DNA sequence: TTATCCTGAGCGAGCGCTCAGTCGGAGGGC
DNA sequence: GCCCTCCGACTGAGCGCTCGCTCAGGATAA
């Protein structure tokens, strides 16, 4: 029984299978299947049998790669955060002033939130179903994403493209950015009556940056 | 089999019991019990037996006042929103300019979010477990609370204590206020390292109102 | 043959909900 | 006052079913 760590700094989950490549491949199948099922029916209402079947194998096999249903939820949460982090970091520019790069990052981030809104909802709704330790890792991962904005704010303050901010203020603004991105996922049913994604990004960027110059 | 409507504009839920006062009393017991259980274990992991026992009677009796487990969740969500609305409206002042009253309202609102943070989490996490029709009513109720801020913004624009805003902008700002209040509930584990409730209110009010004068 | 991965029938616990029955007391006849 | 009847709120054992998880055995490649 080996243990496999898919994300640096993440929890390692035991598996019965020796071939590490196979473990990664199968777990990717499991996660892809589970994400769709969790989004449609929620964690508690999807059965392990469904997960296995959707992933393309039987329950027995599922439990070769995972020790409990909660493990699958943990893998799903980490995969979602990792995907968000990757998409966001891929779109980050380093070209301009801190303020300019921050504005671009906010736009990128909200776009990612738009594309992954179902996934964001999923994390909000199901994180509390994780065992305590897993939940800690997931929240930590989310803080790491928030750190992207703290870094950009710090750079903007250092190159004087933003007004001086103390570290707690930077933290607060970073959290505000995160949450206003999530807001588009949570409240699109109400907001989309009045705004397109582009308008939303424009207005929220203005509000966020208006106070920082 | 009568039907009883506890909240104006809400769904009516059938009951077998004839005495309306008794229905209200028992449903209050059910809601009080369920709120605590849902906060601690979540909706899916609390059993109907637990609800009944905590409320002080047997499962059989529970089902005299409710037709399904989901009905209890609906009653809980509506009760939470109603409590938030009442607490918020009780604290609203009409004394000053629109801008002054808005600032006071934001402070009151975040304080209410602080006091009811478990309840806010509950709503975010479990709303999607409601049947579609019930969910619609719950989201409607939340929009009614958002409307409190839209109204204040409109008043502020009309008496020139705020800069001109078009209706969609007012809507957006009202949603921002709502969500930044919820943020204190969701992220207090991270924010409370740097801020007290009072500091949080001060800073968020400044950010929110800074752009509106 | 052995090592490895996969299968799916089966287990036992626990769930939401039902319904035959209990029981306290209101009301009416004497 | 006393008895009897009926009402309706309440009880909880039990039904039918689903769930997470296991494990004895099958398949395949080396």
Notes on the protein architecture:
Two copies of one chain form a homodimer. The first copy, chain A, is an all-alpha fold. Chain A is 70% helix and 3% strand. Chain A contains ten helices and two strands; from the N terminus they run ββαααααααααα. Chain A has helices spanning 20-41, 48-55, 59-62, 69-91, 98-115, 117-126, 132-158, 167-186, 188-191, 197-210, and strands at residues 2-4, 13-15. In chain A, a hairpin with an 8-residue loop joins strand 1 and strand 2 (13-15). In chain A, helix 1 (20-41) crosses helix 4 (69-91) and helix 5 (98-115) packs antiparallel against helix 10 (197-210). The radius of gyration of chain A is 19 Å and the shape is elongated. The N and C termini of chain A lie far apart (55 Å). The mean pLDDT of chain A is 94. The A-B interface holds A 42, 44-45, 121, 124-126, 128-129, 139, 143, 146, 167-169, 171-172, 175-176, 179-180, 182-183, 186-187, 189-191, 194-195, 200, 203-204, 206-207, 210-211 and B 42, 44-45, 121, 124-126, 128-129, 139, 143, 146, 167-169, 171-173, 175-176, 179-180, 182-183, 186-187, 189-191, 194-195, 200, 203-204, 206-207, 210-211. The first copy, chain A, binds a DNA duplex (30 and 30 nucleotides) through helix 3.
